[in-house]
Amino acid sequence: MQRYFIAREQFETNTVKVQGDDAFHIQNVMRAKLGDHIIVADGAGQEAIAEIVALSKGTVEATYSELTNSAGEARIDVWIAQALPKGDKMETIIQKGTEIGANRFVPFISERTIVQYDAKKEAKRIERWARIAKEAAEQAHRGRIPAIEAVSSWRELLAMVPQVTVAFICYEKEDAQQFRELLQAVISKDSASHNTSIRIMLIVGPEGGLTEGEIHEAEQAGCRTISLGRRILRTETAAMVGLSCILYESGEIGG
Question: Which of 8, 17, 86, 95 is deepest in the core (most CB within 10 A)?
Answer without folding.
Answer: 95
